[in-house]
Design goal:
elongated; Nucleotidyltransferase, domain 5; five-stranded mixed sheet; alpha/beta
């Protein structure tokens, strides 16, 4: 009698190990395929433009503040280090583009120097961020 009751108890158990394996594999898949957005790290007041267009696949944001600070990926960078920082980030996602978020009170000359440094880093797709009116 005991053997019969013990066999029925064993048959009633459900092994969840394969289901957990599948769930963890799916979780890893979604983490690996997710697009991680890089942030400049500071907020700027972007100029307004009627012809502003939403850019897709912007993977690197460069912020230029009115006090001549340049921020990339939440780190303050000197103008001489912009090219190196962009090369490193662009190597992680070669299909992505760069958006320069220049404050409307920042100097145009500094923005152009940042643009040149990004172009020298080998990035083909560069956008200047603006608020659409």
């Amino acid at each position: 009698m005991r053997d019969h009751a013990q066999k029925q108890g064993d048959e009633a158990e459900i092994d969840l190990t394969p289901m957990l394996d599948v769930v963890f594999i799916m979780l890893i898949f979604f983490i690996v395929t997710a697009v991680f957005v890089k942030e400049a790290g500071v907020s700027v007041i972007e100029p307004e433009a009627h012809t502003a267009v939403i850019q897709r696949q912007v993977s690197i944001l460069v912020a230029v503040r009115p006090n001549d600070e340049i921020w990339i990926n939440r780190h303050k960078v000197e103008l001489a280090g912009v090219r190196t920082a962009i090369e490193k980030l662009h190597a992680e996602n070669p299909k992505g583009s760069v958006a320069i978020q220049a404050d409307k009170k920042s100097k145009a000359g500094l923005v152009m120097k940042v643009y040149d440094a990004v172009r020298a880093a080998g990035v083909e797709k560069i956008a200047i961020a603006a608020e659409k009116i």
